[in-house]
Amino acid sequence: MNQKLGEEHVRISVVVLAAGLGTRMKSKLAKVLHRVGGMSLVEHVVRAAMDLTPASEITVVVGHQAEDVRDQVAPLGVNFIHQVEQQGTGHALLSCRESLHSTPGLLLVLYGDTPLLSAATLRRLVDRQRRHRAAATLITTHLDDPAGYGRVILDDQGHVRSIVEQKAASPQQLSIRLINSGIYCFNAALLWKHIGEIRPDNPANEYYLTDIVDILHRHGHCVQALEIKEASELLGINTRVDLAVVDKVIRDRKARELMLAGVTIEKPETVTIDAHVTIGPDTIVEPNVRLLGATSIGEDCRIGACSVIESSRLADRVTVGPMSIVAETLVAAGARIGPFSRLRPGSEIGPGAHVGNFVELKNTKLGAGAKANHLAYLGDADIGDRVNVGAGSITCNYDGEAKHRTGIGAGAFIGSNATLVAPVTIGEDSYVGAASVITKDVPEGALALGRARQVVKEGWVRRRRAKKQD
Ligand code: UD1
Ligand code: CA
Q1: Which residues have a Cβ under 8 Å from the Cβ of 323 and sit 6 or more positions away?
Q2: 202 lines ligand 1 (CB under 6 A)
Q3: pLDDT at position 8
Q4: Nearest to 219, CA basis, from 127, 96, 134, 154
Q5: What is the 3-state secondary structure (H, E, C) of 323-353?
Q6: Residue 16 contacts residue 59 (beta carbons within 8 Å)
Q7: Residue with CA nearest ligand 1 atom 3
Q8: Does pLDDT of 3 surpass 60?
Q9: Domain definitions of the chain by residue range
Q10: Could you tell me the distance, in angstroms and rounded to a whole number, from the CA of residue 90 to the centre of ligand 1?
Q11: Which residue's CA lies nearest to atom 10 of ligand 1?
């Protein structure tokens, strides 16, 4: 509950404002639900805050698509307040007053649309606030293009006098390049005492949180500015252009982190690796790969160009050839996938198994050293160790109404173009002849043939030609 800073303990609470729709996104989806680096904007901000204080001290203000926003961060253990009508950032914070007004210490206010914010910067902010014992400290930076941001007006002593929103700014104020990042640290008691004085007297008719600065100043309190040189960290996302810019920053960071930890990434600017992905050293990631969701990849693997791997676990020494798609699948050590393989959810590939080109697996277990190298569909199947599935073989798992399973015992050999009609079981060490349609179980060690016997008519061509000439 307490954060140790210097000698003293101070309680730090955090409010994350995430109730707005974000009209400039031109989207049906609430802004904070858009994703960068594979994580929603709001989750990025909450996670940065969690580096400073326990989740139980964090409150997220939700409004637009409140349920979906809750779902994103509720598993982290944070609290929520519902802002029913979105009447501005000041109004959003005001809606927390009832539940938070008696919490002592410091209150950090963050906007849910600044996903690059680091915990280190938040720590500097808290530290600065504590040392100066100000009523509030806010993070500012100089931007070459300050359009869209509130402008920070300083007094002679370099303290913040007020913040003027873009829409309300005079031409002279618009030329100010010192901007409000929307990241504040308040003396909680003073904030709750005065927040009710914010009035919606601006062209947008909104309660601007930024007006609190002028209010505190008028009551004789000092508001400090912490100027940050690394402005990119403060980027607030308002449009899809901002979204792409920030996504690139996060992807670059992630790739760099992995490379410094021993992963080779060829043409890193072309790969997409989500925030939670882990990769072991000496693994090689080829160009245009996408590694998504909760994917983990072991050591000494190779992920081929243009492959997409989502929420899957690959052990050490796995090779994925180019153009393969792997989703919600476990791949054991030394297995070889691709090129052009598709592994669908619920599949498990055993150690050293091979899945080759144009082979699709769904909810299928492939045993150790088993092979399905060409043109196969294996759905809802349990395939034993060392089984060989010939080119073009398929499991018919669907009868038009229900799905059924196919079992293939260890060491069995399935000839090319076999059609295994589920539910059916092929015994261990048995053979299924090429092009067989198998509808009945095959016992262990047997040969099963389910095709028309071959007929040879000798001299047939000669007789046919002779007939034609008559
Ligand atoms: C805000 C600041 C501006 C600052 C900029 C930094 C105000 C008035 N202006 O402007 O000074 O330079 O951020 O990025 O604060 N929200 C709610 N409820 C509401 C309105 C907004 O929860 O009623 C949330 C939004 O979901 C968003 C955040 O507050 O996450 C910021 O809102 P936004 O509309 O993006 O503010 P800006 O116009 O960018
Ligand atoms: Ca914004």
Answers
A1: 304, 305, 306, 307, 338, 339, 340
A2: no
A3: 64
A4: 134
A5: CCEEECEEECCCCEECCCEEECCCEEECCCC
A6: yes
A7: 150
A8: no
A9: 2-234, 251-448
A10: 9
A11: 149
CATH number of 251-448: 2.160.10.10
Q: Taking the CA atoms of the chain, what radius of gyration do you get in angstroms?
A: 31
Task: Tell me the ligand closest to 45's alpha carbon.
Answer: 1
Digit-coded pLDDT (tens) for 198-245: 999 988 899 999 999 999 999 999 999 999 998 889 999 999 999 999
Q: Is the CB of 115 under 6 A from ligand 1?
A: no
DSSP per-residue string spanning 431-466? EE-TT-EE-S-B-TT-EE--SPPP---TTHHHHHHH
Block residue for tokens 């009209």: 23
CATH topology of domain 2-234: Spore Coat Polysaccharide Biosynthesis Protein SpsA; Chain A (3.90.550)
Contact (Cβ atoms closer than 8 angstroms) between residue 14 and residue 79: no
How many H helices and E strands in the chain? Answer: 10, 40
Active site residue 91: no
Residue whose CA lies nearest to ligand 1 atom number 28:
111
Q: What is the pLDDT of residues 388-433, one digit of tens each?
A: 999 999 999 999 999 999 999 999 999 999 999 999 999 999 999 9
348-368 pLDDT per residue, tens: 999 999 999 999 999 999 999
Q: How confident is the model at residue 1 (pLDDT cuts 50, 70, 90)?
A: very low
Q: What CA–CA distances, in Å, run from 146 to 16, 32, 179, 250?
A: 23, 22, 7, 22
Determine the distance from the C-alpha atom of residue 76 to the mean position of all C-alpha atoms in its chain, rounded to a whole number: 15
* Average pLDDT for 262-280: 97
In angstroms, the CA 149 to CA 127 distance is: 25
What spacing in Å lies between the alpha carbon of 113 and ligand 2's midpoint? 6
Place of tokens 């277990």: 365
CA of 61 from ligand 2 middle (Å) equals 15
Which ligand 1 atom is the nearest neighbour of the CA of 20?
26
